[in-house]
Structures are given as C-alpha cells and as structure tokens.
Amino acid sequence: AMVFYFKARPDAGDYTIFMGLDKFENEELIKYGFPEDVWFHVDKMSSAHVYLRLHKGQGFDDINEGVLEDCAQLVKANSIQGNKVNNVDVVYTPWSNLKKTASMDVGQVGFHNSKMVRTIRVEKRVNDIVNRLNKTKVERTPDLRAEREAVNAAERAERKQHLREKKKREEIERLEKERQAEMRSYKGLMVTDKMTSNKDIASSNKSLQELEDDFM
C-alpha cells in the first residue's frame, strides 16, 4: 500500500498527517487505523481519505485549530471536484467511528454514530498551506497490518505489566493484612495465656493445699 505522509505546522507540535494513494489504500487505512487517528473527507464529494494521528491520550476535541486547518486544506486539495470550488465542507471523525459493511464499495465508509462527526467549512484553497504541506510529503509503502499488530502487542504487554504490578501490590497488601492479623491474635494469645496460666497455677496450688490438708 502506498501511503503519503505529511508534517503538520511545526509550531502546533509534532503531528503526522497521512493519506492513501487511492481507494484500495483507503481500505487498508480504514482496516488498520490506530485509536489516535482522526479521519477527514470532503463532504458529499469524492476526495482522498486524510488521517491525522493524535498523540496518545489526546481526544478528538483536542485538535489544535492550525492542525485542523492543515488537514482540511490537504483534503480539499486532494479532491478533484473540491479543489476547484470554494466553500466546501470537510467532515472529520475518530477512526473508531468509521463503519465498514460488506455491501459497501471499495473505499466507501459509513459511521457508527453520526453525532461523532464534525464539519469544518473551507472557504478557499490556501496555497501557502498546501505548498508547505507538500514540501514535507514522504511516500512510503508501510506494512499497515504489521504496524497495527505491533501496537496491539505493545498494548497487550503494557496491560500484562499493569496486571502483574496490580497482582504484586495485592499480594503485598494481603501479606501485610495477614501479618497484622497474626500480630493481633498473638497479642490476644499472650493476654489469655497469662490469665489462664495464673489461674491454673492458683487452682493447682489450691488443690495441692487441699490434698495435704486432707492427707493430714
């Protein structure tokens, strides 16, 4: 799969924007996206599928205005129809909201939740933005599946590590509780032992005394 990578405006932070060469690449991108990916498309016209990869822990609403503008300009510039006209709408949504059913054509996509789809109006093409983005363009043929699987494996390892640490913490807590309980019961034993032994001594002495009395 041929994928084009662009760098968003540097002052906004280190963000990568990418898009597939054609509808077949789009299929791959839909299939092997990351949870941090946000999908952009020109509304009601054919266009490239453009993705923005957010940083871990960032949400859909955390997208910087400038980065949003970069994505919208790039997607408009990569729409045969959309590039020629002013005032186009660009829709965007998290990758996880993209829905693919068997009846859909190659490259075609729907949404699980329409409330998760936002629209941004692009008045006109801003050549400065498009040219700046095109200067950062890199073509790669990534193994999208392998990249996705590597992320899955890393996430699994992280979850396992968290689980191990949690179990360890729980085990330490359990041992500490047991130790505390032992201490408590030991203190209790000491007290009851003392009492019993004194009483026992007293009672056995008494009976010895009595025995001697009886004997005499």
From TrEMBL:
* Key words of the record: Coiled coil
Which parts of the sequence are annotated with region: Disordered?
196-216
User: Where are stretches of biased composition, namely Polar residues?
Assistant: 196-208
What Pfam families does the entry give? NFACT-R_1
Domain NFACT RNA-binding: start-end pairs: 2-113
> In the UniProt record, does the keyword Transport occur?
no
Residue ranges of coiled coil: 158-185
Q: Which domain of life is it from?
A: Eukaryota
Assigned protein family: Belongs to the CCDC25 family.
Q: Which PANTHER family match?
A: COILED-COIL DOMAIN-CONTAINING PROTEIN 25, DUF814-RELATED
Q: Would you tell me the protein name for this molecule?
A: NFACT RNA-binding domain-containing protein
Species of provenance: Brassica napus
